[in-house]
Amino acid sequence: MRTERDSMGEMQVPAGAYYGAQTQRAVQNFPISGQRIPRRVIQALGLIKHAAATFNEGAGVLDADRAGAVRRAADEVASGQHDADFVVDVFQTGSGTSSNMNTNEVIANRANELLGGQLGANDPVHPNDHVNAGQSSNDVFPTAVHVAAYLASTEELLPALRTLESSLAGKARAFADVVKPGRTHLMDATPVTLGQEFGGYARQLALGIERVEAALPRVAELPLGGTAVGTGLNAPAGMTEAMLSELRERTGADALREASDHFEAQGARDGLVELSGACKTVAVSLTKIANDVRLLGSGPRTGIAELQLPAVQPGSSIMPAKVNPVIPESVTQVCAQVIGNDTAATVGGMNGHLELNVYIPVMARNVLESVHLLATSAENFARQCIDGVEANEARATELVEKDLAIVTALVPAIGYDKSAELSKRALEQDRPLREVVKEAGVLSDEEVDRALDTKAMTEGGVIGE
């Protein structure tokens, strides 16, 4: 152990740790979950500190040696080389100050090591005076969270959702001529095609993509430069735009920009709430789709069985040869977690008291987890389930011929009451509706067959016109 001091006194810090006294104090204060801040937030913090060092060198705050060492250390942080030294629990001070100081201390100590100094000496590079120069936790940490959320959404979530949308759209085309019963209230309804159902699912994904994309401009609006309370105290003129220019260049995210109002940008986290809400809506859509897929694949002999899902693993420890819809089940569990995450993010967002929101770490954790879980589960759903789904055309045909709701197409010709009477008779006698209608003689056999053309029913309009 080594002895360090911060403004509150001495602390014992592990001898080889790159973090320092303030981080160690936070570790002792928050022995909560064992979960640390997300990797993408650490990456963004490293990028921000690198950009600050570049500006501060040009402004004369850092000499070339200090600036170079800080930049190298910040790059190592961004690339993940020092993740083991980011030890503060995610359930910490609500501003993320502990994680910002964790970053400052790791970069300062690594920079001092590069310059021949000793860990814990804070010389020649000081974590506050040099690494944090011109910055505050109150603008840096939420900026890192927004950058992380933006990059995770564009690099992980949106590509995965597009993959799933494409898979569903492909099945919509493949199943375009598979006629089957529609179902409302889980009861038989007029016919649809399996392709129409899958087309609806693909459209849900397309709209989900639009919702995520629509939220990103607000996520890209960054509080950087507001420092402590939004006024920008101690931030030199030109620093914010210089740092943002570097962040845009290094991330490829050209949309990143300074907030138009720093008091909104630090007192509220509405952009993250909006993105979380978009993720929740995607989760709702995926739950509906996954549930429909496993319902349509239920069986194989006593269920609906209009779909055959890929068999990916044995389904039971006691029932031989049983196969379960495990991929859709995984998707729905992810969606439940995402919806729960959104609730906590919503509570966090509404608790921006006065000049600072103090729920930022938990919002970061939840939003980034939601983005990641939706991305991986959407990709997995596409590859391990949807791409391999097959239509059971014989079963669909069998069921649609038994579907009493096809009597609806007779209403324009014979009226509602007569149609209901014939449908009820077919049900009571357990006979095909087509046979019962022909027997009743209300229409010629040709007219009955034309009216009860189930494929034509899927195309709308009045049959036979």
From TrEMBL:
One of the Pfam families matching this protein, by short name: FumaraseC_C
Domain spans labelled Fumarase C C-terminal: 406-459
Domain Fumarate lyase N-terminal, chain residue ranges per copy: 9-340
GO biological process, any: fumarate metabolic process
Entry superkingdom: Bacteria
E.C. number: 4.2.1.2
This protein's UniProt keywords: Cytoplasm, Lyase, Tricarboxylic acid cycle
The keyword Transit peptide appears for this protein: no
Binding site for substrate: 95-97, 126-129, 136-138, 184, 317, 322-324
GO cellular component, one term: cytoplasm
UniProt keyword Cytoplasm present: yes
Annotated active site: 185 (proton donor/acceptor), 316
Main EC class the enzyme belongs to: lyase
InterPro entries tied to this protein: Fum_hydII (IPR005677), Fumarase/histidase_N (IPR024083), Fumarase_C_C (IPR018951), Fumarate_lyase_CS (IPR020557), Fumarate_lyase_fam (IPR000362), Fumarate_lyase_N (IPR022761), L-Aspartase-like (IPR008948)
An example molecular function term from Gene Ontology annotations: aspartate ammonia-lyase activity
Subunit structure as annotated in this protein's UniProt entry: Homotetramer.
Entry similarity comment: Belongs to the class-II fumarase/aspartase family. Fumarase subfamily.
Other notes: There are 2 substrate-binding sites: the catalytic A site, and the non-catalytic B site that may play a role in the transfer of substrate or product between the active site and the solvent. Alternatively, the B site may bind allosteric effectors.
Protein known as: Fumarate hydratase class II
Gene assigned in the entry: fumC
